[in-house]
Amino acid sequence: MLDDLTTEDFQTLYTHEMNVQGVSANTVIHYHANICRALRYAVKIKPIVANLPDLVESQKKNNYVVSFYNAEELNQLLAVIRGERIELSVILAAFYGLSRSEVLGLKWSAIDLLNWTISIKHTATSGNLNGRYIEIEKDRTKNKASPRILPLVDTFYELLIRMKE
């Protein structure tokens, strides 16, 4: 069955995933890498003689363009969420530049009220697994540069003290 595949089959698969399934070029790059890795092993143990996805022209990676709120937009956002459950999360993200997964991964153990610091060392995100919505917590950050210790400013310190009580 693998012997019947062509490079065009893989190119069609990647194009289908992007155009019909709506996945990003970066996701297709990850698919391609995983398929290549699996078939490279198959070549090594000899069920197939060639790793055809290696011959397929790969997608170009999308450049991520950072966008952010200006002062007016941020003030509008803060006015809308004032008093809501997510207020602290949004304020922390806006002030410290934390990602959504970093804010969701914050734990009380990462907040040092004695030394007035917040340690960014956990993340949390969500996804679908076999059609079920799941939350994924990790005791690590996205990359080696992401863990950091940030100073608590007076406003956050007081707010966290009130929340903890």
UniProtKB/TrEMBL annotation:
Presence of the UniProt keyword Lipid biosynthesis in the record: no
Superkingdom classification of source: Bacteria
InterPro entries (UniProt xref): DNA_brk_join_enz, Integrase-like_cat_sf, Integrase_catalytic, Integrase_recombinase_N
Annotated SUPFAM superfamilies: DNA breaking-rejoining enzymes
Biological process terms in GO annotation: DNA integration; DNA recombination
Kinase is among the record's keywords: no
Domain (Tyr recombinase): residue spans on this chain: 64-165
UniProtKB keywords: DNA recombination, DNA-binding
Gene Ontology terms for molecular function: DNA binding
Record protein name field: Tyr recombinase domain-containing protein
